[in-house]
Amino acid sequence: MPDPRRVLVLVPFPMDADNLEKRRAQMQAVKLGPDIAFDFRPVAIAPINYVSQQDMLIADIGMVEAGRRAEAEGYDAVCIDTVSDSGMTALRSILSIPVIGAGRHAILLALMLGERFSFVSMWDRWRPLYEKTLAELGLQGKCASMRSADLQPNNQSLLSGREEEVFPVLLATARRCVEEDRADVIILGSTTMHEAHAHLAANLPVPVINPGPLTYRLADAAIRLKLSHSKTTYPAPLVPRLDLFEAMGAAVRN
């Protein structure tokens, strides 16, 4: 059997092995063959959370630093494990292998399944992340609403131990999107919410998109179809400066 195709999943925060397993648990939501393998890599450079323009800049740098050598390391694709799509466009400019962002592709899938979609998130401070991607895609008019459960997220332990508190509130929030805002599709507003997907999907009358596992399936499809992003849209830099990102990473690790 030939060596399996390899995908690098960039996790947007530094974390220990136990918390990284909570991210890796997203793999249970998709059935992929033995000929593809996924490695989960936490970044070294990251903000505390994604609530400001400064945070987004730091997140972009962290993702590029962590994924800049993915192609040279033998990976066939990269997945961005955050709905913010941090670092996606910059990595597309320096890599030729597919780079799949969770947010953009969740939106595009929603429009394959319905006419209007809503984001359901943990807190309202994530709203600018969705607004940015919608503006880039020109799809603001397709977004029925952005509603949050108004609960403090935890990007390390995720929802573990909080199911009884969080799941009913997320479900009530999603129902308002469907019943009041007329959403045809629900998008989970963060890959940190993946543990709630099965509960929401089983109790809502519309499709619920789980952005992280979606990227794994799309990476598999892109590799099999021998497709990647257009270098006309994402041109390579005239002078690559990967050494700058390497130096920033080394400074943080030391």
From TrEMBL:
InterPro entries: Asp/Glu/hydantoin_racemase, Asp/Glu_race, Hydantoin_racemase-like, Iso_Racemase_Enz_sf. Belongs to the HyuE racemase family. SUPFAM superfamilies: Aspartate/glutamate racemase. Signal peptide: none annotated. This is Hydrogenase expression protein HupH. It comes from Jiella endophytica. One of its GO terms (molecular function) is amino-acid racemase activity. The lineage of its organism: Bacteria, Pseudomonadati, Pseudomonadota, Alphaproteobacteria, Hyphomicrobiales. Gene3D superfamilies: 3.40.50.12500. Pfam families: Asp_Glu_race.
